[in-house]
Amino acid sequence: MKKKAVSFTLISIFIFVFFSSGYATRFNLRFSGGPTYLSLKSTNAILQDRELYLKKYTENHIMGQFLKGTTPGFHLGMDFEGEITAFLSPRWALGISTGYIYGELSEKNSALTLQRRNNSFHYASLTTVSAFPLTVCGYYFLPINKPIDIYTKLSGGFIWAQYAHRRALKKVEASKYEYQYIQKASAHSPVLTSGLGIMYEVDKGISFFTEVNFRYARVNGFKHKGQKGKTKHLFYFEEYIPSFQIWQSKKESLAEKPKGENFRSVREGVVDFSGLSVKIGFMIQF
After folding, report:
1. Is the separation of the CB atoms in 144 and 198 below 8 Å?
2. 136-176 pLDDT tens trace
3. Which structural domain, as residue segments, surrounds residue 188?
4. Based on the structure, what is the number of domains in the chain?
5. Which residues contact 4 (CB under 8 A, 6 or more apart)?
6. Domain containing 143 — which CATH number?
7. pLDDT computed for residue 38 by the predictor
């Protein structure tokens, strides 16, 4: 925690000194957004194992039947970014960037339909991930034919993330879900990105661009304050279900690390925001 705070302070001082100095030749505002692919490896394992658990549940109950539904892969989201950029020369630039990354697996897309006795139910696993990155960026521009530039981009900093997982149930004919289980946690970790883009200047001081970004951000150290202000830590583990003879992946905020013969692969919970973004945007000189 102290190392992260010191690093963040140094980055802030560097940005302040740089933008206050006379090295920059011009300043620009950049805004962009577009779809992003998120790794979310352990999150998807939990969703898939939840489907397996419900199928086993219906197989082991005389009055139960799995009717329809499949859990899709949870990978797609949106990535938005705003940035102040300072050009040192026609080819080199530095900037400070922030943004918002969001992904959601909705009730509708995660619904699995089961029959219990004479009633049919929808089981849903609403899952959301969100993050606010703050990074220092470096650019190298390669003019190919005015007014078109190709550029590469490297950046590093920190990302503040939130994770939420909710299990919900409703009768097929009902209008609203009832939430049986709610899991929330937050954390921050380092983030690194690299990118490649192409920019077109439509008028003096106004440009449009499109870029592809590769992001590495495995966020760990998730915590949640429960009742009475007690801090819980997010753990990933597999739990053995004797009645169904399966191992089920889970991610839960607990006061202590799970122990015992019915638990394996116990480790700190990670939400992997690593992935790829394709964004379009514009840049304005000021």
Report:
1. no
2. 999 999 888 888 999 999 999 999 999 999 999 999 999 89
3. 2-218+274-285
4. 1
5. 158, 188, 190
6. 2.40.160.20
7. 97
In a domain, 163, yes or no: yes
Residue 226, domain member (yes or no)? no
Give a yes or no: residue 70 inside a domain. Answer: yes
Domain assignment present for residue 77? The answer is: yes
Q: What is the pLDDT of residues 87-124, one digit of tens each?
A: 888 888 999 999 999 999 999 999 999 988 888 999 99
Whole-prediction pTM: 0.88
Task: Say what the pLDDT of residue 181 is.
Answer: 83
